[in-house]
Each structure stands twice: as C-alpha cells, then as structure tokens.
C-alpha cells in the first residue's frame, strides 16, 4: 500500500493557503456580478439536484481544491478500493461495501482474493428476499403458529443506526402489517420499553452484529431470549424444558453476522442466519444483510431499490472527472471549511421529518471514519481532521439552534436536504403545508447566504443598539440538495453521497476511514470496571481516585 501523500506538501495546498490569506467572501456581490454562478455550481447526481453556489468558494478556489484531490490521489485510491485492495491497512482488509450494491449480472465479475464477490452477494440477497417474503406472507410462523406482526432488530452502531434511520425514512412503504423496532442501548430501559407491549407469539427478533461479540447486543439478545421464554411459558404456549425453549428460539430468532459459528453457539439455527463479510465495515453495512429488518418490514423490492440508488452514486464517483464529481466536490468543500477556514462542525439539516435519524446515522459514518490522528501508515496526520456532524430536521432546528448558525461567531457549513413532493400531502385551510415547509428551506438558505445589512434593518425603522442585534452578516455557507421525493432509490443515493464525501476527506487527510480503534479502550475498561461496580473490592482498589469516588457514590445511592 502506497504511503499517504502529505496534502500540505502539494502545490494545491500552497494555492489554497494563498486563497485563504485575506479571504473576504461576499456572496451578495458574487451573485450580483456573476449571473452564471448558480449554473456553474449546480450539479445533477442521479435524482439529486445539488446546488453548491451558496458556498464560500470562487472558481479559482474550487479549481485549487480539485487539484488537491488530484495531487493526493483521490481517484487512484477510489480505484484501489473498488478493486478490492486492502486499503483498510490496520485490519488488513479490503473495503468493498460498493460491491454490495452491484446489480446482479454486472460484468466483468468482481473477483477479489480469488473469490467471486458478486456471486456471494447475490446468494445472500436471494436468501434474504426469500426469507423476507416468507415472513411478510405469513408462511413463516411463530412457535404457536401465528404470523409475525413485529420484528425487533437488536444491534448497535452500524448494526442499528442504518436500519433504524432507513426504516423511519421509508415507513410509508411498510405495507405488510409488520412493525419494526430497534433495541441498541445496553441501558435496560431500551429493551424493557420496546418489548413492553409486544406479543411474544408474533414477535421475531433479529440479532444483528458483525462480530457477534458486542457486549450491548449480546446482552440484549439474552434479555430478549429470556423475555420470550418467560412470556410464552406464562401463557402456557411452551413448556419449561430445553427442547421447547430451543424450538421457541428457532421460531422467533434470526441473526445477521460475519461470525456464523458464534451465532450457532448462541442457539440460533445457522439456516436462520444471514452472513456478510469482513470487507464490509459496520458503518457501511446497512446495504448488507444488516438491512434484513428493512427487507422484511418494507419489502425486498424496496431494499433492492435502495441498493440501486447507492449504485447510481458509486458509478458517478467512478466515472465522473473530479471537477464534476459531486461527492468529491462536497468532500473538498468540507476540507476547505474545516482545514483552511477553521470550521469545527458541519450541520446536516433535512427538510423531511422522515429523516429525523439521518444526522445520527451520519455521525457514525463520518466521525468514526475520520476522527483520527494518525494516517494509514501510522504516521501523524499533518492537518486538523474530522468535523463534528450534527443536525435535526427543519423546521424544528430553526426554533432551536439556527440562531447560532445565523449570528454566532463560529463558521458552521450546513447541508440542506429537501424533497419536492411530500409523503403526506396535507392542506391547511386550502394551503399546501409541504409548500410552506419548503418555503422555510429556501428562506433559511437565502438568509444564511445573503444576510441583512444594517441599512436594510434601519430602512425598516429600527434604530439604536437594536440595529446591530437585528443585522445578519450573511456569508454562512450552505449546500442545497433537492430531490423529487424521498423514495428508496433516492435515499440510497443520499447515503452513498455521504459515504463518498467521507472517503474523499479521509484520502486527502491520509486517513484510513475504515478502522475504529478509538472505540476499543472504553470497551476494555468497561470490562475491567464491571466487577468493581458489582462490589469486587480488589477491582475497585485498582481504579483511579475519581473512578473510586464515583463507584462509592453509586454504592451509596443504589436502592433497587
Ligand atoms: O462502536 C464500534 C463498533 O465496532 C462499530 O464500528 C460497529 O458498527 C458497532 O461497534 C457494532 O459492532 P457489531 O456489529 O460487531 O456488533
């Protein structure tokens, strides 16, 4: 694997540093004097219309950013990823989530490390389709012969955030009378509340874990199994003997994992398990068997459409020149803001209530991928990396944190995502509510870009100290992503867009975006501290003073 290219040593970096020195963006002026700006800075990406014109870049800056992508080898590294090179260096793995959405029969076949990846993917997809159809039609039955009405996905991180985000986004497509729920947190509240009103006879649990070792997921899976046995036996639906319990698990538990031996050890029949591969990172896995809950609740056709959307964007990235490559351009803009202009965070603001978990999903995708201080060869990074991604759907965010974006002292680039057509076209006294909603999206991006001058404030009759308070500086950068409707295909496109934005930034910074060693220390320490919180004096004595004091507080306040 070639060494990362230090971006700060490139000529493009020097150009960008010169652009930054004394940089005084003026979107009002740029829009007034340049009638072609919007056209030049607007792009089509599948069904997405992406308007970059309200970003703080000139043509010269964008050209330098594109040169930065060229000089740091973004296209070459993407090609290496698609070809199955082991670009995940610290785990010595290929990175092939893009293979999960290649259409059946794609040519030439993708063969990596001697394995026909396309065949493997299609085989599992076919099994998922058949299983999902069986559950949806009622052919698959619970232990007492009833059709499944509820599925509960038990997973965390990439084995939860993608499925729950997509389920929430595409709920209008749930047409088989099956409700999906998602349990992730090891806080027992999560399991208790999500199962409280469930009927064990009609509930199917999906234990989703790439490694099948994750503490939260395995603990919750055992809680779910205990709940199932207890509730079924309370009703007299099963006996308390081993065979009855095994039979109950066989009818009410399936698993999704790369570790099928561990699935079997848990007691789930391997024929009720769906595999995937170590070349799929957890946060890139919603389009693998990790999406089984979606195939059941929304249907296999919806799941396939989602995959088709991902593939559209993969193809765009593969075939478009860097200067017209939308995910690359958006990744470059993020580098411009975070590394050159000092932005520490990035807001993602969907004008779609259905995307209310989108920011949470993106947090893992972006921050677990690029929150790193070393490069893929183990040397320190040469720039700041990894912004904080956050957001809430509009218009809720407008009444909460937009104040800071409009008038605060920090630069917060924001992506606005909107859809021309609503899932639920409601009217308020004859007025189309979705149109009103979209007026807010347009108004916010306009206000952020162009602000309101002191003269304009005064012209409205405001005087004195209030003038400054009511002035908006403008030049707050936004990207507008508009699509006809939030369909499965469009959602796939959106997710893939952000995957490739993340990848672009990672390459420029020299980061391996596909490992996550930063989550390990806390996991290890939790295992060490668990005996101390359970009262083991020896384990307590080895803790630092603060942890010991917190343990003492716990022991003196725990009452139940
Ligand atoms: O938080 C670390 C992590 O490894 C994530 O990358 C992953 O998505 C999550 O835990 C869950 O892991 P698994 O699917 O193996 O249970």
UniProtKB/TrEMBL annotation:
Keywords: Cytoplasm, Gluconeogenesis, Glycolysis, Isomerase
Main localization of the protein described in the UniProt heading: cytoplasm
Listed InterPro entries: G6P_Isomerase, G6P_Isomerase_C, Phosphoglucose_isomerase_CS, SIS_dom_sf, SIS_PGI_1, SIS_PGI_2
EC number: 5.3.1.9
The protein's annotated pathway: Carbohydrate degradation; glycolysis; D-glyceraldehyde 3-phosphate and glycerone phosphate from D-glucose: step 2/4; Carbohydrate biosynthesis; gluconeogenesis
Annotated catalysed reactions: alpha-D-glucose 6-phosphate = beta-D-fructose 6-phosphate
Compartment(s) of residence: Cytoplasm
GO cellular component, one term: cytosol
GO biological processes: gluconeogenesis; glucose 6-phosphate metabolic process; glycolytic process
Pfam families: PGI
GO function terms (MF aspect): carbohydrate derivative binding; glucose-6-phosphate isomerase activity; monosaccharide binding
Signal peptide location: none
Highest rank taxon of the organism: Bacteria
Active site location: 368 (proton donor), 399, 523
PANTHER family attached to this UniProt entry: GLUCOSE-6-PHOSPHATE ISOMERASE (PTHR11469:SF1)
Function, as annotated: Catalyzes the reversible isomerization of glucose-6-phosphate to fructose-6-phosphate.
HAMAP family assigned to the protein according to its UniProt record, in alphabetical order: G6P_isomerase (MF_00473)
Family the entry assigns: Belongs to the GPI family.
Name listed for the protein in its UniProt record: Glucose-6-phosphate isomerase
Organism in which the protein naturally occurs: Microbacterium halimionae
Gene that encodes it: pgi
């Amino acid at each position: 694997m070639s060494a990362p290219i230090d971006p700060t040593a490139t000529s493009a970096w020097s150009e960008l540093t010169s652009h930054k020195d004394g940089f005084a963006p003026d979107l009002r002026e740029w829009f007034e004097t340049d009638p072609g700006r919007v056209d030049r800075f607007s792009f089509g990406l599948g069904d997405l219309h992406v308007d970059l014109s309200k970003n703080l870049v000139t043509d010269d800056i964008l050209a330098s950013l594109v040169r930065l992508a060229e000089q740091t080898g973004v296209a070459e590294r993407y090609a290496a990823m698609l070809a199955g090179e082991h670009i995940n260096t610290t785990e010595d793995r290929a990175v092939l989530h893009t293979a999960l959405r290649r259409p059946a029969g794609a040519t030439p076949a993708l063969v990596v490390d001697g394995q026909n990846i396309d065949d493997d993917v299609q085989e599992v997809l076919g099994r998922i389709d058949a299983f999902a159809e069986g559950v949806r039609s009622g052919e698959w039955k619970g232990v007492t012969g009833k059709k499944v009405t509820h599925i509960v996905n038990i997973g965390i991180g990439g084995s939860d955030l993608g499925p729950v985000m997509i389920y929430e986004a595409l709920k209008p497509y749930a047409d088989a009378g099956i409700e999906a729920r998602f349990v992730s947190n090891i806080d027992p509240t999560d399991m208790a509340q999500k199962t409280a009103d469930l009927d064990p006879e009609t509930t199917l649990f999906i234990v989703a874990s790439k490694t099948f070792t994750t503490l939260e997921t395995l603990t919750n899976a055992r809680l779910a199994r205990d709940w199932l046995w207890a509730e079924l036996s309370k009703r007299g639906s099963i006996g308390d003997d081993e065979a009855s319990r095994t039979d109950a698990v066989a009818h009410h538990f399936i698993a999704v994992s790369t570790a099928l031996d561990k699935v079997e050890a848990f007691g789930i029949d391997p024929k009720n398990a769906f595999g995937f591969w170590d070349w799929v990172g957890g946060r890139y896995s919603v389009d693998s068997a990790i999406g089984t809950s979606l195939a059941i609740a929304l249907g296999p056709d919806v799941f396939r459409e989602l995959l088709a959307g991902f593939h559209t964007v993969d193809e765009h990235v593969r075939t478009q020149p860097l200067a017209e490559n939308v995910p690359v351009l958006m990744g470059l803009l993020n580098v411009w803001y975070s590394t050159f202009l000092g932005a520490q965070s990035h807001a993602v603001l969907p004008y779609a209530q259905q995307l209310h978990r989108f920011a949470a999903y993106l947090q893992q995708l972006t921050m677990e991928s690029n929150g790193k201080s070393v490069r893929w060869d183990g040397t320190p990074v040469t720039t700041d990396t990894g912004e904080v991604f956050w957001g809430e759907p509009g218009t809720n965010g407008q009444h909460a944190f937009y104040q800071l974006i409009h008038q605060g002292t920090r630069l917060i680039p924001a992506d606005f995502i909107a859809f021309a057509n609503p899932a639920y076209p409601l009217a308020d006294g004859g007025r189309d509510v979705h149109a009103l909603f979209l007026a807010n999206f347009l108004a916010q991006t306009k206000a952020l870009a162009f602000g309101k001058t002191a003269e304009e404030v005064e012209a409205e009759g405001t005087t004195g100290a209030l003038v400054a308070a009511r002035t908006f500086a403008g030049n707050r950068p936004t990207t507008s992503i508009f699509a006809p409707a939030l369909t499965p295909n469009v959602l796939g496109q959106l997710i893939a867009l952000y995957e490739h934005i993340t990848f672009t930034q990672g390459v420029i910074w020299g980061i391996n975006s596909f490992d996550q060693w930063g989550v390990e220390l806390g996991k290890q320490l939790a295992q060490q501290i668990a005996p101390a919180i359970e009262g083991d004096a020896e384990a307590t004595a080895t803790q630092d003073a603060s942890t010991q004091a917190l343990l003492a507080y716990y022991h003196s306040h725990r009452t139940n």
